[in-house]
Every structure is written in structure tokens, then in C-alpha cells.
Amino acid sequence: MSRDLDQLGAEYEALIQFLYLAPVGLVQADSHGEIAMMNPISAQLLMPLSRDGSLDNLFTALQDVAPELRVLCDTFGAPSGKVCDGMHVHLNAGGIAGSAKRVPQILSITLLKLDATRLMAVISDVTEQVRRERQLRQSDAWLNAILTGITDYALVSIDWQGRICEWNPSIERVTGHGPDIVGQPFSVFYAPDAIIPEHLFDRLREADSNGWTLDEGRRLRADGSAFWGSVLIAPLPDREPLPGEDPGPAYCLILRDISDKREASERRRRETFADYLTGLANRRAFFEAAEQELLRSQALPRPTAVVVIDADHFKAINDRHGHPGGDAVLQHLAAILTSTFREVDVVARIGGEEFAVLLPSTDLARAAVVAERLRAAVASQNAIIDGLAVRFTVSAGVAASIDGSGGVDLLLKQADQALYAAKRAGRNRVERWRPELVSCTTHDHAHHPGEDADAA
Amino acid sequence: MTNPTITFGMPDLAARLDSCRPEELDSLDFGVIGFDADTNVDLYNAFESQAAGLSQQRVVGQPLFTNVAPCLNNFMVAQRFEDAQDDGSTLDDTIDYVLTLRMRPVKVALRLLASPGGAHRYVLVQRQPR
């Protein structure tokens, strides 16, 4: 018997403590508001409002801040039900004037009529919650202003896979795309050969690790017309989908039409990264692009190819037509290179008459096919020097890395070994790198580009 | 059996309580809650335990204003102790308050005691005739 009583006592105490510590105010009162039971949080929140220091009556305690409560209850017709649900009550200045400490400013009150004689109230401090909601509304308004008020930005939310989640008018304004763009990858803004699926993921991964990623270049509108655009991608906060929930927006993409700034940025790019004679990428641009691409291909394994191209007997052309003639041949070759390779490939002049092309996501065989197409194109089209048609040929060496390991130096060295083999085999040829070529001596890029191989 | 020499309203009460043995605190006819500089309860006498329906074991060691008496966690009580601690000043004030003892609102007088050199800070609780 005493055991049972002890047990009951312990349970009672646990229940009491549960109510003492409940983090919301709970009050039970009669239909006139006379308080029968209440927990400590109720006293914590209501005591500062009480005029006479008592908490005998709920309506009296709240009369200064929620005078309508008594009337609401009196006029509530149903035998039971919610008299009010989460009603916000704004307190006056609240607490000690000038106190830096946080004091409740807004209470939420839910009043439940249990029956003709009993009321139950839930009271909680929602000051912080209301403040957060207000901030959220402000950011919403801010975003809205951007979406509707600014003409040269498109704000696009994209998911984990880089697919466009939602359509809004800013997308249409900048790109002309309608709501049917939803679900497409953001590469839809790029020319078909200007971005490969792997690059799409590279950008997202870059945004993950750096907090943002930005690129600039030719972009396409829905009607196929081109503009000069910059694309900024940043990961969104709180983007982990809840279990069972569809993954929503994971990144924010901002597409800007900067056509009017293109000239300045193009000039800057040309000065830093372009070869003065041919307009192709220069050595620096090639090495930077290759290093970046190989690094990326280690994260998301895929092959990367390099084709090294050298004009055959270029010394003879120079001797016969002079340097201006030689330059014209190089420009002619540069034009064929540009039209042969994709926009995503990096075509560079890395030496006097030596060119290199970086082909992302391309294996040895595919790169060799393109190189062969180039060789054939050069052999079949005459360059014009001083009104004279000049026929010349190129040799090419192709190498590829399966997963980015070895770096750009090794890849370029192997392509050079293949090029040397093509030269030795009679020129106007394409050779693929193979392990037997390792023993072949080649020229050294850093010091004697091109010429040596030709002379060998 | 109550202790006649210590009363709720007497002067210098904090120093007297500091030197009391636990049995002496338990014999008082008002509630004694003592707490340390981190607001953890270190004294909880029998009177208060009986009134609140909580045993000492459930209360001692717990933070007063969040886990024992959240009803006191406002500018009227908790803030006063915080301010006194920040200023290094002495607090000795008696206020009317309502405690929710066993969920019943009970009018009480609270005496708030804190001094920079004191061993404990105190909230003392005396029931008022209704």
C-alpha cells in the first residue's frame, strides 16, 4: 500500500514538474476569467501586465493589452471551441525602459472554450518569431523589387542537378524564355557547343566550395540570338531537403546581360589571355584552362584530350614569303582551327607556329577524329598571301588523360611526342600518343617551340 | 517546529541564512531558495519543497530561472538579480508576486537578496493571507 502511494507520489511530482517546465503558458479559468490553474510561464508572462500584482482573473490581467478578450468570450455562441487562435497581443514598451535585456513585446494567445464554465488559454512569447517573420517579409519584398524592377538581371533558382526550378518574369525579360524553361538545365542559356554537362556540375561544385562561381561569355536567348552575359551561381542556405520532401531550389543563378560592357571586358581578356596575332588564346590562357579542367576532371572523372598542331615546313614558308607571309598563314590556320573545334574547346597559340587545343570530356579516339578533320581542312584550303594561293599542311599529335592525373605538363609532353612521331612519319599526319613514343626525343616547349621538331 | 529567531522580514537576513545548517533552514516557516552565481539552486528548504510539490533532489543543481521557477524569469525578479550582479550592488527588496504552486496561483511576498560577498543569493517566499 505504502509502495503504491510512493509510486503515486513520484508520478504526481513528475507531472507537476512537467507542467512547471512546459515552455508555454497554460491557464485554466472559468467563464468569467477567474483563474483556477496556471503554470509558471503564464505567471512569468502575465505578472508584468498585472496592475494590482494579483493573477486572480485572466481578463483583468490582460485588460490593458487585450481588452477584447472578455467580450470575445461573452459573445462566443458555440458550446465549445476556439474563441481565438494565436491572437497577437502587442505589449506596451514592455519591461524596464532602456533595459538592454530582451523582454516580451508580443504575446500569442489562444483561447479555448471547453464548456459553459471552463476556458483554457495558451500564452506564449512570440516576439522573436514575429521579428523573424518580419525580416522574411522584408527580404521577400526586396527580392520582389529586384525581380520586377530591374531589367537586365534574370534571377533563376536551380536545383541540385542544375535544373531550373521556377519561372519568373525576369527570366523572360533577359532571355525570352517562357515557363516551359522549368526543368531544363541552366546550360539552356549557353550555346549548344559552349558547355558540356560536366561543366554544369563543375560550376555547382565550385559554388559549393567557394560560396559562388562566376563566368562570362556568349549566351543565347530563347530565339537563338546571342548576347554577352555573366552568370553568377551561389548556393542557397537551408537547402537540405527534409526527409520525404522533393528537393527544391539549391542554388540561385543570376544571369546578367552585359552586352554593353562586353567591349571593355573583351579588351581586358584579349590583353591578358589572347594571342596578339591570331586572336586565339595565348599560352597563359591555355595552361590556366588546362590546369583548371584537369583539376575538375579529377573531382568528376572524365577524359581530357590535348591536340598539338604544328605547321609543316613553316621555316620554308617564312623564307619564301617573308614574315608577313608567315603571319598570314598563321592567321589562316587560326581561322580553320576556330571553325573546326567546339566553343568549349580552348584553342591556343602556344609557340611560333605551334598550336594546342584543349578538349574537355573528350577521349583519345574522338580527339584524333577532330584532329584528322582539321588536318584535312588545312590541306584542302589554300592560304592567300599577296594574292597568291599558298598550299601548306599541318601535323598533329593527340594525347588524352583518363582522369586528369599527371597534369597538363604530362599531357602536353605526350601530345608533343605524338606530334614528333607524325613529323618523322612524313608530316601532314595525325598521330595518337602510345607508350612506345616515350623514348622519342621532342623539342622543349619552353625554349624552342615548333622549329626544332620541324628540323628534326 | 519553527525557528523563532529567524523571520522573513528581519534585517541582515542573508548573512543569517548563510550561517544556517540545513535542518535550521528546514524549520523556517517561509520558503528559502538559495542559488549561486550561475543561478543554479544550491539551497531549497522543506517549506518551499512542500509548497511547490517538488523534492529537493529534483531542484538542487538546476538553474533557477529556467528549470525550477520560470515564473520568476522576467524583469520583476530575474532581471533584478542580473542587474545587481552586473553592477556589483546589493539587492534587498520585498515585492508582491503570484506563484503557481502546484498550478494554483498563490499570492506571496518575495524577498530578493543578493550581495557581492554573499555565499548565496536568495529568493524567499512568504504566503500572504488572501
Fill in the keyword field for this structure.
heterodimer; A: 456 residues; alpha+beta; Beta-Lactamase; 5-stranded antiparallel sheet; 5-stranded mixed sheet; 23% strand; B: 130 residues; 5 strands
Parts with pLDDT < 50 across at least 5 consecutive residues of chain B? none
- Within the CATH hierarchy, at the fold level, what is the topology of the largest domain in chain A? Alpha-Beta Plaits
**The named CATH superfamily of the largest domain in chain A:** Reverse transcriptase/Diguanylate cyclase domain
Order of SSEs of chain A: HEEHHHEEEHEHHEEEHHEHEEHEEEHEH
Strand content of chain B: 25-35%
Provide the CATH top-level class of the largest domain in chain A.
Alpha Beta
Q: Terminal Cα separation of chain A, in Å? A: 109 Å
* Main beta-sheet annotation of chain B: 5 strands, antiparallel
CATH class of chain B: Alpha Beta
What does this structure look like?
The complex is a heterodimer of chains A (456) and B (130). Chain A has 456 residues and is an alpha+beta fold. Helix content of chain A is 39%, strand content 23%. Chain A is built from 13 helices and 16 strands. Chain A has a 5-stranded antiparallel sheet. Chain A has a 5-stranded mixed sheet with strand order 11-12-10-15-16, with helices on both faces. Chain A has a 4-stranded antiparallel sheet with strand order 6-9-8-7. In chain A, helix 10 packs across helix 11. Chain B has one domain (13-127): PAS domain (Beta-Lactamase, 2-Layer Sandwich), CATH 3.30.450. Chain B is globular, with a radius of gyration of 13 Å. The model of chain B has no long low-confidence stretch (mean pLDDT 91). Classes of the chains: A alpha+beta (456), B alpha+beta (130).
Explain briefly what this protein structure is.
The complex is a heterodimer of chains A (456) and B (130). With 456 residues, chain A is α+β, with helices and mostly antiparallel strands.
Write the layout of secondary structure elements.
The complex is a heterodimer of chains A (456) and B (130).
Chain A: H1 2-21, E1 25-30, E2 35-38, H2 40-46, H3 58-61, H4 68-74, E3 81-90, E4 106-113, E5 118-125, H5 127-149, E6 153-158, H6 169-175, H7 197-210, E7 213-220, E8 226-235, E9 251-257, H8 262-273, H9 283-299, E10 304-311, H10 314-340, E11 346-349, E12 354-360, H11 364-380, E13 383-385, E14 388-390, E15 394-401, H12 407-424, E16 430-432, H13 451-455
Parallel strand pairs in A: 15-16
Antiparallel strand pairs in A: 1-2, 1-5, 3-4, 4-5, 6-9, 7-8, 8-9, 10-12, 10-15, 11-12, 13-14
Chain B: H1 13-18, H2 22-26, E1 31-35, E2 41-44, H3 46-52, H4 56-59, H5 64-68, H6 78-87, E3 91-101, E4 104-114, E5 121-127
Antiparallel strand pairs in B: 1-2, 1-5, 3-4, 4-5
